[in-house]
Request: fold
Amino acid sequence: MQENDLKTITVTIAGRNFPLKVTQSEEAVVKDLVLELNTKVNEFQTTYPSRDKLDCVIMTLLTYTFDQKNSSEKEDTSQAHSRIDAIKDMLNDLIK
Reply:
């Protein structure tokens, strides 16, 4: 990816602006993510009105990190099961 393939956009998350360099194909994905993040932060602000905005951003970060870790562990487990099944198949073929 070359520098001239990038364009600078400004995104706003939890009321703060952040400049980002993205490709044209990444721009829509980034905008969707920003909308999703702001929605989640707003949900936490509604649910926990006594918390400040930074607390809500951190809770959003923890939520996404937790979900990512769970998803990775499930994929690892699924891959392990697939490998075990493949080994079983190979053993069954050897026995036949």
The radius of gyration is 21 Å.
